[in-house]
Specification:
With 212 residues, the chain is of the alpha/beta class. The protein has helices at residues 16-29, 44-53, 63-87, 98-108, 113-122, 139-146, 160-176, 190-210; strands at 5-10, 34-38, 91-95, 131-136, 181-185. The structure holds ligand Z5A. Ligand Z5A binds next to helix 1, helix 4, helix 6 and helix 8.
Length: 212
């Protein structure tokens, strides 16, 4: 039986790192064979692209280059790790996936949605997560949290208007695909955010089981 792909999305300071670890522990505890990965990154090529695309020293990176670099990393990740894992029944938990390109490069940078959809179909082989948890937090709260993290990278250095557009794009996507997305209110304390995420995954697994 094929594995399931779960993605974790959200804006700055939404708590993805904490939730990812809670989900990893939960799924492994249930005996599910799991691959945890991240975007951009996850493979040697992807991690090299990540260090370039997030490098503050890169200066002006045009939106087209940024979009293509995200998909170059994703194309490699999908073929090298995600497809083989899903085919052998391993579940994949990914810290961001293609929805991030719709939100950051589409919503944030204004790249046309149709272009992103073409890249999704071609470079990402049309693979969509079975479940996407959107950790949603008002931009001002998320940015205040993220400030304690140290030197911001190139994308983290954007203005709040950019992150407002990113958040709107994420919420719009969640509205269009309500059966795939679960929106988690991440303005709650971190333990409650993690508990809501685990509950959403449990509910997903019940739905999966009942559909068989
Ligand atoms: N990107 C893109 O543009 N296009 C794409 O297609 C893809 C990605 C795939 C790297 O992603 C960047 O790439 C990202 C989007 C872009 N750029 N930005 N900006 P990333 O996911 O690796 O980077 P990130 O968004 O900066 O993720 P992060 O560091 O993993 O963020 P987080 O996990 O959501 O935040 P956190 O580190 O967990 O939280 C930040 C602080 O807030 C930390 O001190 C926490 O303890 C605190 N926190 C978190 N939640 C709470 C709550 N609930 N209460 C109190 N304090 C909290």
């Amino acid at each position: 039986m094929k594995g399931c792909l779960i993605s974790l999305e959200g804006g700055e300071g939404a708590g993805k790192s904490t939730v990812l670890e809670a989900l990893r522990a939960h799924l492994e505890c249930l005996g599910i064979k799991l691959l945890v990965t991240r975007e951009p990154g996850g493979t040697a090529l992807g991690e090299a692209i990540r260090s370039v695309v997030l490098d503050e020293q890169m200066g002006q990176v045009c939106a087209e280059s940024e979009l293509l670099l995200m998909f170059a990393a994703r194309a490699q990740l999908v073929r090298e790790l995600i497809m083989p894992a899903l085919d052998e029944g391993t579940w994949v938990l990914s810290d961001r996936f293609t929805d991030a390109s719709y939100a950051y490069q589409g919503g944030g940078r204004g790249q046309p949605e149709g272009r992103i959809a073409e890249l999704e179909a071609w470079a990402a082989s049309g693979i969509k997560p079975d479940l996407t948890l959107l950790l949603d937090v008002p931009v001002e709260i998320g940015l205040a949290r993220a400030q304690v993290r140290g030197v911001p990278d190139r994308i983290e250095s954007e203005q709040s208007g950019f992150f407002d557009r990113v958040r709107s794009a994420y919420r719009e996507r969640a509205g269009l695909e309500p059966s795939r997305f679960r929106i988690i209110d991440s303005s709650q304390d971190i333990d409650s955010v993690a508990a809501s995420a685990l509950a959403a995954v449990d509910e997903f697994m019940i739905r999966q089981r009942d559909s068989k």
